[in-house]
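Hi F.,

I've been meaning to write this up properly since the lab meeting, where we talked about keeping a consistent format for the predictions we share between groups. The idea is simple: the sequence comes first, exactly as it goes in, then the structure tokens exactly as they come out, then a line or two of notes. No screenshots and no reformatting. I'm using this chain as the first example so we have something concrete to point to.
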Amino acid sequence: MVKEVFRRRSIILGAAAVMAAPPMLHSETENVVTEESTVSRPRRTRNTSYFRKRDWQDHFGKIGKGCILCDIESRSLHYWGPDGTYRLYPSSVPMTDELTRRGRTQVVRKVVGPSWTPTENMRKRDPSLPTFMPPGPDNPLGSHAMYLSWPAYLIHGTHDTRKIGRQSSSGCIGLYNTHIADLFELTQLEAQVLLL
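Output, unedited:
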């Protein structure tokens, strides 16, 4: 009987400690020291803490031909279809803020087995890149690509699954090949896209 009471107390105390730990361990802001002063800014969080369902009405006026929200901070892509379909996928995002474009655009072209031509800026950053790469297992665009109205910005697959959930792209949004194939089938041309 004593062991059972002790076990119950341990479980209750352990659960209380776990519930209290996140607020104690993680604050909503972090202090950044600069030469001039200390500045408080929002803490960057890992993608799992914000990898949650969202409502399309918070970001779009109407669903129309479909809506895609690419959340750079949480490294997730949300899709809402005109038939009520909702999907949430983990994604790769641009490596730096300089490579990140935010705002509204739309899907203008869809390609199965895309070829890849690195941009001039990509080749300046990495001269070892080829000038052209045909479709295939070494192609960084993976199995499917959806081109946006912004030149050189895409939502595409990747054969390198280590990139998903990371800041690893030169501006595009990357998905696992199985996820981009699913999204590709659901997405209509002229679907709205918002990168934030």
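Notes:
The mean pLDDT is 83.
The chain is about 20% helix and 30% strand.

If this format works for you, I'll send the rest the same way.

G.
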